[in-house]
Write a structure and sequence with these properties.
Helix content is 10%, strand content 37%. The protein is built from 6 helices and 34 strands. Strand 13 and strand 14 form a beta hairpin.
Length: 523
Amino acid sequence: MSDPAIETIFSAEELQLLDQISADAEAHNRTSVYNVPGYAPVSHETRHVPVKVSGQLPKDLRGVYLRNGANARFKKTMSRAHAFNGAGMLHQVQIGDGEVTYSNVFVRTPRDAFEEKVGREIYPQFSDLANGATRQQPKLKLIESKKAQGAIPNLTPLELSTASTAVQMHKGKLYCLNETAFPFVLNTREVEGRLVIDGTGRLETWDGKLQSPFSAHPRIDPKNGTFYNVSIHRQNGGIFYSRLEDGDLKDHQLIHQQEGAGGWMAYLHDYIVSENHVIFPDPSLRSDRSRIGQEESIYYFDAGYKMRWGVLPRYPKAGDTVRWFETNEPGFIWHMVNGWQQTGKDGHKQIVLFAPLFKNYQAGVPIHSPEEGHGKLHKWVLDLETGAVEARQLLDGAFERPSINPARSGLPCRYVYLLDESSGYMGKGVLKYDLQEEREVGYLNYGDALGGEALFVPREGASAEDDGYLVDLLMKENEAALVVFSAATLQELARIQLPARVPFGVHACWLDPQCLSGMRHGE
């Protein structure tokens, strides 16, 4: 498709309708909880700008830090503000021998590439269904008609990814992830020892074998790097399991079919892969598209729906079904801490799980804002012999977005690093918590900055579980820094001052020299 002018896509009457919708959205956004400097987007892109370092970077901390996040490309919008709206943008800090550089780039998914050509937001945003579903219906119907006419690329829901939630590497390839759609594989190059990303790439389906979204939180086997995916197909309500091994989709299957036209899980954002099982929550936050025309959100919290846990064999075979463990209260979970198998005092086989639990959640899904409410760290023990569930709250604070040593994923661990969200926006610090002794170990205060995720990076040759570094991108109104802390003592070791501010964002990954040397460029 050639580069069309907006006037060749929409008639004058249609443009007038879109302008009216835009005016309504912008009026709403002036008083939105998201109308704060931290959510203001950046429009510039940079490549390997040298940056200043204060303190002392650990000699073994060499590699690339990548953080993804939603970043609106255009000043004019037709949607109500939300943390999930916008194109993906990668922020990259490369630490080499004697040189540290910063880069940032838009993730040029098919939808973003087309909107970049026409110079205007076209496709729907998350908030069109979460906060304004009825008001946005004329726009959504118009966009669907233009897709059918061939006036704009007829991208399916699985192709409409913003790829803005997370970024992870598997077998030499970088994947930008958004759990409502296919993964997006980035094109990469190496230039004079530097990782160069221009944001281009392609949607990955492994030759059509993937028939569902791919999780923004693939659980990664610490022994061999295998990716595990559990995700909801939002058009048919199916729950899918996938296993990505050595770069190939080795298994992909429907493991549970949600019945009825509505009342499905709103999100299946995170889960656990233990030695023998895949465990995921079925939360009380539900989704029902039939609410459009009656409510401004397709999401709602059903206080009468008790949250339950689904347990499936790690390598499901034909005939295997999800076994459900019902809790005694409603709740919603964004992120899991960890989980593993154990033997109880009575000799019963058990699964123990840890996660921040929201005991209520607003229909507008006001994540990363003061309207969201607070997640409370909980522990669940599932008895695999009797089906009983024991649940207990461990902390009363507002803690979310946990981080652990990745080598302990799905295995017994002691330490978790919990982001303190009591500020309302992002994290004002980190609580180090001992899961074995169920006690607070220490607190790391971010001062006047806000962080998104305390990413754990193991130290080379480490033996202790907490022998490593916590790395977080700390954001202020007009500046940003990547800061390195000791995971053992929580002391600041080094601060990398970035050349420009960075909008609020969350999920990141770390690529060590071994990852970088194994990267498959130009594929």
